[in-house]
Amino acid sequence: MAELLTAIARRQREHRQHTADRLTTVLDTGLLPAELTEMALYYQAKAHKDLSQNDAARTGMQQVADTGGRLAVKASRALANLARLAGDFPTALAAVPTLGWKGRHHRVLGNIHWSHADTSAAIHAFEAGRAEAEQHGAAGERAMMQVRLALAVSFADPDRAADELALAHQLLEGLDQRSNTLLAQVVALIKDAGTSDRDVAARAESLRTDIETAGLPFLHRFVELALAFHHAVRGADQDLAATIGRLRTLTATGDFAYFTDIAHFMAGLPLPGPSTVRWTRSEDDVRSAWRGLVQARQERLLAGN
Q1: Which of 145, 140, 144, 90 is nearest to 112 (CA)?
Q2: Which is nearest to 108 in space by CA: 125, 120, 121?
Q3: Summary mean pLDDT of the chain
């Protein structure tokens, strides 16, 4: 029990593989009572998700959901998110009405909306999630919602994104949320997309190092998506092609493959072949929305110059 609680407490400060290994060792003893076994399985699955070991994450979360215990609703939320990561947006969307506050329904919905470049709907969902977190006194969830609100805003309105990021950093202060702190740095890259290429590239490289050190490889996809937006805005075709190549490698398992599709949409490029992604709207609508965000940023920068 002591090893279980220590592993969970230290997971934000240690490489996620170490957390997964420690929890596996605890589970293999077979000494935990049922409720604590559920907890160990849940946090082991969370670690697998952060490590992009999503098949293992799905297996673990399904076990927790099937128990019907205290963490079953959170596991159901995780399964909805894993469906989204696999590009199955209709399944993720269908789960939202069943989740409620404990399943962080607004967070799941907001993540679906921003992935479709539906900025207004995403902002509404994340604002609702932040308000709900405030009502429940959940400081960590409030900060998480604020980071994702800034993410949704960053593609469409860099001025507002700066304000939302400032609030995100304020809410993150004093919290042990390593992944959200790093995601906030990705948001800053998106906010600055289209500006000095050298500055954005240097910050992205530094962020890659921090992500690797933290053992949060899923965030590499977000960095590359930010760079894809940056290169699409600048019309840097060679840099964009290299970024899409890295994204294709990072999403070879199928998870986050929709990021590669989005990168093509941003640049107005055809997909190289049939996509496995299932959107909630037509692919043409999603393509047009992402391309529209790029064109709006180009026009904004041109007007500023």
Answers
A1: 90
A2: 125
A3: 93
Q: CB burial class (10 A; 0-12, 13-18, 19+) of residue 137? A: exposed
pLDDT at 225 over 80: yes
Q: Name beta bridge partners: 274.
A: none
Res 34 pLDDT > 70: yes
**Count of positions (residues) in the chain:** 305
CB under 8 Å to 193, separation ≥6 — which residues?
200, 226, 229, 230, 233, 297
Q: Provide the phi-psi class of 178: left if phi over 0, else alpha when psi is between -120 and 50, else beta.
A: alpha
Task: Identify which of 191, 219, 216, 189 has the alpha carbon closest to the alpha carbon of residue 204.
Answer: 189
pLDDT digits (tens, 9 = 90+) for 67-122: 889 899 889 988 998 999 899 999 999 999 999 998 899 999 999 999 999 999 99
Distance CA 108, CA 95 (A): 9
pTM of the shown model: 0.85
| 3-state secondary structure string across 275-287 | CCCECCCCHHHHH
Cβ-based neighbour number of residue 25 at 10 Å: 12
